Amino acid sequence: MYDVIIIGKGPAGLSSSIYTGRGNLKTLIIGKDSEALEKAYISNFCCAEEQTGKELIHKGIKQALDVGVDIVEEEVLDIKKESEFVITTDTKEYKSKSVIIATGKPKIKIDIPGINKYEAKGVHYCVACDGFFYKDTKVGVIGYNDYAYHEILELESITKDITLFTNGKDIEMKKENLDELKSKDININKKRIGVLEGNDYLEKISFEDGSEEEIDGIFVAYGTASSVDFARKLGITIDNQNILVDDNQQTNIPGIFAAGDCTGGITQVATAVGQGSTAGIRTKTYLQKLKK
Amino acid sequence: MYDVIIIGKGPAGLSSSIYTGRGNLKTLIIGKDSEALEKAYISNFCCAEEQTGKELIHKGIKQALDVGVDIVEEEVLDIKKESEFVITTDTKEYKSKSVIIATGKPKIKIDIPGINKYEAKGVHYCVACDGFFYKDTKVGVIGYNDYAYHEILELESITKDITLFTNGKDIEMKKENLDELKSKDININKKRIGVLEGNDYLEKISFEDGSEEEIDGIFVAYGTASSVDFARKLGITIDNQNILVDDNQQTNIPGIFAAGDCTGGITQVATAVGQGSTAGIRTKTYLQKLKK
Predict the structure, then answer these.
(1) Which H helix or E strand runs over B57?
(2) B15-73 confidence digits (pLDDT tens)
(3) Contact B22 A44 (CB under 8 A)
(4) ipTM of this complex > 0.90?
(5) How far is CA A36 from the centre of its chain?
(6) Among partner residues A48, A272, A278, which is closest to B48 by beta-carbon distance?
(7) What's the rounded Cα separation, in Å, for the pair B112 and B134?
(8) Do B46 and A266 touch (CB under 8 A)?
(9) Which residues of A touch B277 (CB under 8 A)?
């Protein structure tokens, strides 16, 4: 059991971890490298030497390790709040008393005509949140990797008629996961999607090759789960794709903090590091109060 | 005329200036060295090498100079808002379209028994704000340097019976300023103050040597003018000695931003640098809107 799990290995998450680690909180960072930042050359970060993003992150990682922080390069697939927080990655499951989300700015992951029109009217982004609307109906998951696999597993208890739509992508999933989907008769459709159609609600998917498929609902789990995807699962208030936080970087859910680009504002290393330090310190305050 | 004047040469002010300088805003930093930070060893500032405060500030100054920022080592004595902002230092006067206050955490400057009891009831901190209550009365200024001199000049148009109380300190004032005070018959009292006394309102000062002096009001201008002193002069909302700012580091007065320890929160280099970058970027946005 960790005191705090930090999701994201960029400047915000690393800065948080330096404070929680120094504050004797058992801390785990789960994150993958950020290619965009690593390629950047950072000269506007005050009071640090000019350096590449790669050097900058390397320094942060060294500082985190020096204060006893654990770091794993895994992909987070799911977060649940039970008596503690349970975080499922592509490799294993971790538990913690608090969470800091520092996953950077969510990218627009898929752009299919009609996807916005039917949002919440057949198009959804979180099985745990909206899956129960689709009991025993015909549903699809748009995705191609272990994140999609994880959403399909969640859907299975709701309906048996599930199709994985890869939208033209090859499947990039652990072999045992793909084998499991096949053994469970999950349909796999690799055609490129042309447009989502219906009247008030989604009714069918039209593919670029002219074929169609009727569908009651689809769940988007395309690429990597973003901060907004996690936030949805946890009931965190989102404003215009940003996680809403107060001056202490705390979300509306006790024990969950967020810092850096995923909270909106200016997307700068300086602000990420600053907000990260606040999140780290305030997480410690939160856990101290919890003990009493 | 500057686009922006930044008061304070610590991590917050320097970080702001890097952004305003890169944004082609004509930028001036007015500040003195911070001895407290310079002596510190900073190891919790993420993604920067471990370094002394002195090295850290030196790097920030180099970054600021590299983007064309002017830096002067002067002491700010007064800020006024006319058609633009007018900032008076111990050396000269500067004008700007916007101001970023980044002066660090105000220290408790003087601790005299009774000083809190009579606050706003005979004890004041801003002649420009409260001087008019004391027309033709007997007033004192507690101080010893050019900041006190400046407050006395402001008082002169209100009353002629003015005493400078140094509270045991030697006078550290430019010779011409001291000469001017003497030529104007300003009384100088160098005794150590024991206690401020009165009933509902301040009535007299008792000195440690047992002597007393009746007084109608005193203005504290002891040491260096702090962020809170500037804020009072400008009508900025203060909360518990901190300057109140919004998510954009903007105060309630258009064109005035604040960043770093003077805005409260955790007093860390990381947050100062982060807030400074936001203040710099938002000042640019403010000036762009002003042009339209």
Answers:
(1) helix B53-66
(2) 999 999 999 999 999 998 777 788 888 989 999 988 999 999 999 999 999 999 999 99
(3) yes
(4) no
(5) 17
(6) A48
(7) 22
(8) no
(9) 44, 46, 266, 268, 270-271, 274
